[in-house]
Amino acid sequence: MSEPKTYQEVWQNCLKFIKDNLDPQPFATWFEPIKPIQLTDKRLRLLVPSQFFVEYIEGNYANILATALRKELGPTASLDYEVVVVQGVAGPQSNASMKLPGHSPSRPQNVSVTKEVINPFAIPGIKHVDPQLNPEYSFDHFIEGACNRLSRAAGQALATAKGKCAYSPLFIHGGSGMGKTHLAQAIGLEAKRCFPDKSVLYVNASRFQVQFTDSRMNNTFNDFFHFYQNIDLLILDDVHELAGKEKTQEAYFQIFNNLHQHGKQLVLTSDQSPAVLSGVQERLLSRFKWGLQCDLQMPDFDTRFKILQHKATSAGIELPLEVMQYMAENITYSIRELEGALVSLIAQSTLNKRDINMELATDLVEKQLRHPVKEPSLNKIQNIVCEYFGLPEGALSQQTRKREIVQARHIAFYLARTRTKQSLSAIGSSIGNKDHATVNHGCKVAADLIQTDRRFKQFVEDIEKQLTASMEQ
User: Fold this and answer.
1) Same domain, 269 and 163
2) Could you list the residue range(s) of the whole structural domain that residue 270 is in?
3) Alpha carbon 398 to chain centroid distance?
4) 130 Cβ contact list (under 8 Å, min separation 6)
5) Gap between the Cα atoms of 360 and 320, Å rounded
6) Whole-prediction pTM value?
7) 284 and 344 co-located in one domain
């Protein structure tokens, strides 16, 4: 009679069976992190990274896991889970039983296992989670107007909610310079003020992308995932920068699901609404629509005037009424532009030892801000470049090294970089699904050719004229 199998042998045999019947990526993500810790009679006990693992496996892989386990232990096999305790950010230790098809789980045994995970925002010697918030971006400094009243009210309601909020996920969208980042951070600051023990985190999508990439390279994805799943309020800024980043989107999808299922709060910002956001998986877009979508619009005159008044008072500067009225009437493109104009006005006054008056304000606006260049969309740039060279729509996304397409793509990269505030990653995702290094290289090639090739320079100048004309229509 052969000796009974150990729990390690049972689990290794189960893994072999599962690996043979599952694609490599889901196997590596959902089964490799699991560790066996005990076998009692026909009941196998497993250590899993999180409660989300239990829920996800039960919802997606219960049948294959049950088949593998019964193959090893017989038809009466059953399974218990123990969830890893995350020191510093997790609550009390939790246990879970997974019901295999056809059997009822019994009460799990109490086995204490702990694991400390890596905090990607960790500061040496500090245990708590730094929310990464700027205290200047509070609701006190966020001027309310018709353009943002709904967004502000929804943000305050979410920040002050004790538990699950109907507005979560809150999706804030609007053009560049409309105050999305300010509002998102104000929500985080208010939540920390109302609930000091609450785990709040603000992170830009580009930084989230870097952290995820590093976790994959360093084989620390589980730590990355565990850290984020323990955040009570997660604020992801500029989610449109994840466009085309399939693996990062999959990671955020897992985190989003886990937080939402456990009643945690989510805030996202984007330059576009979910309905028109491109390069993002449909399943993510559908989740972005679960809560409330708020649009930050162009500020009206009254709001612009209040912003100037507030900023001047905060800076200890007394602006003449006529100057504030003149600037509020003429600087209409964005809040960022309005604030920048005020900073320039104060600097001109201080450096040149001139009084702030209508003459100085008029001179500044006429020279710098009277006719601001509206930022074109990346799609518009691509369409105009393709039209100029007689290329079919979407040609810049073709995987080809044809000289005419590569040249057109480099020009599109260059114009997107010089005429918009989009990141290299966002430009690459929209134009040809390229990475930031490829975009950077293309911009340098175009800049060099503008200096050395007259014909190429003429191409760029002609396209820029068409682009400017299209923005004035």
Assistant:
1) yes
2) 139-296
3) 27
4) 121, 123
5) 12
6) 0.53
7) no
